[in-house]
Amino acid sequence: MGMAISVFDLFRIGIGPSSSHTVGPMRAARDFAVALGDQAITRLVVRLHGSLAATGVGHGTDQAVIMGLMGEAPESIDPDTIALRLNQLNDGQPLLLANGQQIAFDVCSDVEWDETSLPFHPNAMVLSAYCNNELVATNTFYSLGGGFYVDQAKADQGEVGEDSTSLRYPFNTAAELLALCQQHQLRISQLMLENEKAWRSEEAIRKELLTIWHAMSDSIENGLRATGHLPGGLNVRRRAQLLHQQLLHPPKNQRLIVSSFTVMDWVNVFALAVNEENAAGRRMVTAPTNGAAGIVPAVLAYYLKFEPDASEADVVDFLLTAGAVGILCKRTHLFQVLKSVAKAKWAPPAQWLLPGLPRYWVAHQGSGKRR
């Protein structure tokens, strides 16, 4: 049936601007540093290859790797501290490794940029640790997208982090998913909940999904408040705050105009807020990548804002349903497209939370909201 995929493999709290060029490298670097244990280290060398080298400056790949070596993780790092810590490092202060050791680290000489691609994947980096000029540890990591990575050993064995967990209702295609829903008289969200119980309790699932949503919501709210220009040197001005104010306080000559595009205006401004937070290297949630991270929270935020009867239960059902769509994407060529262009619009429509859901999208038995 193939590897088991959890909704929490798709929705992962992290930072911008890229799941493959920022989040994955940070996680890999952190794990490399932790694996060093008590091994004495006097120097670390980071060599970025292929796409990580070609676009790493704009994506902050070198900064992400350094933070990872210091023991930081994408889901917990405070983005406000990154610039200060890098400035301290550039001023000659030592690098504090995840294992507590302090070493000298020269960003200019200890981070190497090699645009030559390695055979397994274009997003590659080699981390090497030395003790008095003697190599004591080295590993090659490949960032696969969505914050996932594999090291050289797993790449050589053809492993890409596959999970062999047995699910109650496994599916590989939309047809199989809908057939299971019809056979067992389950909504998609209910079927997904049963599958998620293979890893954690229902209480833990609901709690973690709400944590995911709160991170998404915070990203929207922060993006709607932020002003100024985005980093990167292109002088791109943030737009979400201004557009949001225009929606809240439209010009007098537009207040009587009722347009079907108003719905999309709200969804777009929510998505733009997340995208700008991502571009600024701030906190966000992969869905399933950084580049596509704005759509799922935007649709859900619109529903919660304008549906009077919306509840936390709806949030859980929506994210579970969106997770099913994401799993189908990941099992097909579409997920490869998501990883390569990192800008696809991926989300279940808001109607999935409301009565009148098209039968071809979900099998539903009984009364009440269809999710």
Automatic annotation (TrEMBL):
List, for all copies, the residue spans of the domain called Serine dehydratase beta chain: 6-153
Instruction: List keywords of the entry alphabetically.
Output: 4Fe-4S, Gluconeogenesis, Iron, Iron-sulfur, Lyase, Metal-binding
Q: Which Gene3D superfamilies match?
A: D-3-phosphoglycerate dehydrogenase, domain 3
Q: What is this protein called?
A: L-serine dehydratase
Q: Does the keyword Transport apply?
A: no
Q: What pathway is this protein a component of? A: Carbohydrate biosynthesis; gluconeogenesis
The Swiss-Prot or TrEMBL record describes its family as follows: Belongs to the iron-sulfur dependent L-serine dehydratase family.
**EC numbers, comma separated:** 4.3.1.17
- Record-annotated Serine dehydratase-like alpha subunit domain positions: 184-331
| Catalytic function, reaction form | L-serine = pyruvate + NH4(+)
Q: List all membrane-crossing ranges.
A: none
Domain of life of the source: Bacteria
Example GO biological process term? amino acid catabolic process
Recorded hits in NCBIfam families, A to Z, give:
sda_mono
> What cofactor requirement does the entry state?
[4Fe-4S] cluster
Keyword Transferase set for record:
no
Q: Name one GO molecular function term.
A: metal ion binding
